Known about the structure:
Two copies of one chain form a homodimer.
Chain A: H1 7-17, E1 26-27, H2 30-36, E2 39-44, H3 54-62, H4 67-71, E3 74-77, H5 81-92, E4 97-102, H6 107-115, E5 119-123, H7 127-141, E6 144-145, H8 152-168, E7 174-178, H9 183-195, E8 200-206, H10 211-218, H11 240-249, E9 252-256, H12 258-272, H13 278-288, E10 298-303
Helix pairs in contact in A: 1-3, 1-8, 3-5, 3-8, 5-6, 8-9, 9-11, 12-13
Protein name (chains A, B): Pyridoxal-phosphate dependent enzyme
Cofactor (chains A, B): Mn(2+); Ca(2+); Mg(2+); pyridoxal 5'-phosphate
Organism (chains A, B): Rhodohalobacter sulfatireducens
Amino acid sequence: MSDIPTYSDIKEAAKRIQGFAHKTPVLQSSFFNQRTGAELFFKCENFQKVGAFKFRGAFNAISQLTEDDGKKGIITHSSGNHAQAVALASKMNGYKATIVMPENAPIVKVNAVRDYGAEIVFCESTIESRQESTDQIISTTGATFIHPYNNADVIAGQGTSAKELLEEVPDLDIIIAPIGGGGLMSGTAIASKSIKPDIKVLGAEPKLADDAYRSFQAGSIQPVLRTDTIADGLRTSLGSLTFQIIKDNVDDIVTVTEESIVRDMRRVWERMKIIIEPSCAVPISALLDGEVDISGKKVGIILTGGNVDLENLPWK
Amino acid sequence: MSDIPTYSDIKEAAKRIQGFAHKTPVLQSSFFNQRTGAELFFKCENFQKVGAFKFRGAFNAISQLTEDDGKKGIITHSSGNHAQAVALASKMNGYKATIVMPENAPIVKVNAVRDYGAEIVFCESTIESRQESTDQIISTTGATFIHPYNNADVIAGQGTSAKELLEEVPDLDIIIAPIGGGGLMSGTAIASKSIKPDIKVLGAEPKLADDAYRSFQAGSIQPVLRTDTIADGLRTSLGSLTFQIIKDNVDDIVTVTEESIVRDMRRVWERMKIIIEPSCAVPISALLDGEVDISGKKVGIILTGGNVDLENLPWK
């Protein structure tokens, strides 16, 4: 599978990850329902293995490798949740993972990846150095590279979250997810439109990393201009595959401020008693700031992850 | 009902709170299972209304008042979760609540109670002043006093959490809860021993507030000697009713250090992505520190609440 994934691929992915990934719970909150005048359903990928939806895609991709390929190893570059996801999914499949990380990556992220048994190769903190280190390892070992989002198997895996959500709450009017590289958004859009063609599929982005919004408006991929949003999972640009899928399947993309992100991250902690990372709050802010008309509607929200440095909370 | 509640009272309480209190979820954690070699089931009262199990008891007591009594108002003294529980349960029953709070109570607690529509009467931060203020209001208004734990209706309400847990996981070998005033522990013990007579019922306390442990050993109520444990929900002494129930129905009480409480509170945040308050971590520390032999056992843990001041986390 190297082309745009279909709903059939997502159904296959769901079978593949069953028993390995968690079927995450769907929570509701009377506080947020009252605030919005809508009925909100939070799909809790923060409770997923490695604390983020990324495990779904990584496991779906890695579990499909032939044993010969798997034995040559798995490789990716990431200092975020995808790194942990590839590390754990490789380990669960009995393969060795190598993660290329910038030498200035937070120690807490490095340790998490190491705890999952992956080897870490440090590189300079530039895109060139990262690519060079990765290419070199691939050329020596023949390891398989798992792209964090521009990969059809990864996208199909991420789509299983929306599939589960719509199976549990079939009459959603709207589904909304954050957009970073677009893997989750792509899988969510394909699954949602296939299960319920009249559902409205929305993406949400920080104003400080609004490349998907601008790409969507322009009709061509626009690069990220800044990387200083607090929503660290959403700093990447779209890929060729995810842009195509989002262009064809997403109804609208809305953007939110940094202040709203921090405010709503905190509100979720205080009111729902669950830990979400800043990227998670982005779609919630879009709903609370009135960017979308949801009054009286049933709205599904993918909560993407809960990996936060508890020593550095954004409201300190 | 003014005597020791029975399981029949807990079943009645369960009917009374249905549709008003949340049926809270039961979560599992592969991290904690691996750490302990047991299978742990976390009953999430941190997701309960007002963020704590206290709502169950307060609603069960207040919803039984005659309309004549209810109209005279409800009163309690507390600066903790019971205050919020009485405030919200009164509001939901259409009654006016008055909460007597020390003038140095944290503003976040004061605001939470006010948000639920209760009137706050401030007193000096002494037991005498608190009692005097309370008595004065009762004598003028005829308001009904709802004790935070030494009240059979409150105890019966708290017991509904263990009832739900055992209905969802009927083959628990052990159930463990923290002990403050003993209301939750009492309701948990009565429900558990009635549903599954051979279950082991355990209580957990901070070493710095081990009055229940000492009372249990001595066979008579021993006062709390210090009030500086971080587990702020567990600083109170047992009441006559709760001591009697605990003496007759609890198999053992174990104690844990402050260091373990903070460590395990943080572990739950990091690994389970849910927010628990320090009191919640006390039974978990008892299990992790080997105070109880749980290898190969199924263990239920009541997570009592998630009300934490996010500006003042104990690991900063």
